[in-house]
Amino acid sequence: MTLLSVNLNAVAQLRNRRDLPWPSVTGIARVVMDAGANGITVHPRPDERHIRRTDVYELSALLRDVYPEAEFNIEGYPSDDFLDLIEDVNPQQVTLVPDDPAQATSDHGWDFLGQGDFLTSVVQLLQRGDRRVSLFCDPDAGLGGVTAAKATGAERVELFTGPYGACYGDPVRAQAELVALAETAAAALSIGLEVNAGHDLTLENLPAFQLAVPGVAEVSIGHGLTAEALLVGFAQAVRAYNAVLR
Ligand SMILES: CC(=O)[C@@H](O)[C@H](O)COP(=O)(O)O
Ligand SMILES: NCC(=O)COP(=O)(O)O
């Protein structure tokens, strides 16, 4: 069974269009947890363009007090600010991503061979707090890449599924991406690394991913799931507004 962690970045981005408190990030967190999600993912970025530091504290309190079984997964580049936030909030999982602050979104995994020493020191620091550490991993990292990832001491890698997600409408390229993802996942599992996955997974591309890449512990999904929520929720919202107007 693969667990679902819902990424609330997109909800926060919508909230930030106005100086108003809706959609409420913690309110939507309650909805997704009540609907059966296993946890919440956030990727606070230095410019706070979506998730704000205050959201991280509020979500942490909500999950601790109301959903103690839930996993809080915080993603980001291990800057001093990020590591301080992790110390304060102590989430169950930290996913380290090699983001530059100027990046529009995450678009590659770690260079495990080149940055092994740096990652090892950060992983050791994070594990003092008894948190699971997951490292963002290119889909074609292969056995060499995941072996170097394991040497850092991290318990998991998160497969970057963005290139697969970008193959919508192109089944041939999608199949090639799935082969790379499956090989890297199998290599990771074979050396005792657990495997997460995420980025641009959707209702459409998830079934083929599930079939091709067995053994994934957790997927984190935000953009596609939020788009789906708008699609299924808009009709009900229009009916509710019409009920007031008529
Ligand atoms: C780590 C990762 O894959 C990303 O999906 C990330 O969490 C999304 O970040 P943005 O929402 O800022 O694009
Ligand atoms: N860790 C990946 C993740 O949270 C995916 O986010 P999204 O691409 O589905 O928005």
TrEMBL record:
A Pfam family it matches: PdxJ
Positions with a binding annotation for 1-deoxy-D-xylulose 5-phosphate: 45, 50, 105
GO CC term (a single one): cytosol
CDD domains linked: PNPsynthase
Positions of the record's site feature: Transition state stabilizer: 158
EC number: 2.6.99.2
Enzyme class of the recorded protein, top EC level: transferase
Catalytic activity reported: 3-amino-2-oxopropyl phosphate + 1-deoxy-D-xylulose 5-phosphate = pyridoxine 5'-phosphate + phosphate + 2 H2O + H(+)
MF annotations from Gene Ontology: pyridoxine 5'-phosphate synthase activity
Biological pathway: Cofactor biosynthesis; pyridoxine 5'-phosphate biosynthesis; pyridoxine 5'-phosphate from D-erythrose 4-phosphate: step 5/5
Catalytic residues of the enzyme: 43, 75, 199
Keyword annotations from UniProtKB, A to Z: Cytoplasm, Pyridoxine biosynthesis, Transferase
Single GO biological process annotation from the record: pyridoxine biosynthetic process
Binding residue positions for 3-amino-2-oxopropyl phosphate: 7, 18, 200, 222-223
Protein's job: Catalyzes the complicated ring closure reaction between the two acyclic compounds 1-deoxy-D-xylulose-5-phosphate (DXP) and 3-amino-2-oxopropyl phosphate (1-amino-acetone-3-phosphate or AAP) to form pyridoxine 5'-phosphate (PNP) and inorganic phosphate.
UniProt family annotation: Belongs to the PNP synthase family.
Quaternary assembly: Homooctamer; tetramer of dimers.
Protein name according to UniProt: Pyridoxine 5'-phosphate synthase
Annotated organism of origin: Devosia lucknowensis
